[in-house]
Amino acid sequence: MGLANSFDIAVNFWKVNPQLTSFGGFKELYDSDDSKDKVSSSKIMWAIAFMYDPDSKFINIPTEKRMDIIKIDFLKDKKFDWSKYDNQIKMYLDCILTPAERLVSEWKNKLEERSKFIKDQKYTLENAKDLDRMLADTKKMYDYYNSVLDDLIKEKSGSRVKGNTMESAAEKGLI
User: Fold this and answer.
1) Which of 36, 54, 144, 42 is nearest to 96 (CA)?
2) Whose CA is closest to 108, among 54, 57, 162?
3) Measuring CA to CA, which residue among 16, 20, 36 is closest to residue 28?
4) What is the distance, to the nearest Å, from the Cα of residue 77 to the centroid of all Cα atoms in its chain?
5) DSSP bridge pairs for 166
6) From CA 63, how far away is CA 74, in angstroms rounded?
7) 20 to 30 A from 152, CA-CA: which of 32, 118, 126, 161?
8) What global pTM score does this model have?
């Protein structure tokens, strides 16, 4: 599981992850929070976890829609600016993603971006050939994405653990 060992928003993020209050972008956010018990920054960190953690129940919602849902329904702030927290987001992703998860995330983002681009194009005589080629290439791209996803599933199945090392006999429950 990622940094969020559970997604219990009733619990202060910093109380369940106290080690994060001392490092990089997390420390910066924590130290700048003047709210009682650091509840403001805790809520932002929960939003980041909901948005980016592979174990989040929201992870399969398209990125822009997921951002809107979290900022409106959870943060209760339609004007919430995710880009203000780029440092914390990057650090969160660096902490939680394995190489396979990182690759799957990058591919997913590019496929979403590509899909939106194709959807926004008008089909004209001038671009028909290019759009047809892009649409035909979509299957190849998804086939590659699915092979990367299969690698991730194998990684999570227990043959490898974070750090890309093999599970020990004890970790496998053999001894």
Assistant:
1) 54
2) 54
3) 20
4) 20
5) 160
6) 16
7) 118
8) 0.70
Report which secondary-structure segment, H or E, holds 170: none
Over residues 143-155, the pLDDT tens digits come to 988 888 888 888 7
- Kindly list the domain boundaries of the chain, sorted by start residue: 1-96, 98-175
Measuring CA to CA, which residue among 163, 32, 36 is closest to residue 12?
36
Q: How far is CA 41 from CA 4, 12, 51, in A?
A: 15, 9, 15
One-letter amino acid of 91: M
How far is Cα 158 from Cα 101, in angstroms, rounded to an integer?
14
Query: What are the pLDDT digits (tens) for 74-104?
Result: 999 999 999 999 999 999 998 888 888 888 8
Phi and psi dihedrals of 161, rounded to 5? -120, 175
Half-sphere exposure of 122 (CA within 13 A, CB side): 3
The answer to whether 33 touches 40, Cβ cutoff 8 Å, is yes
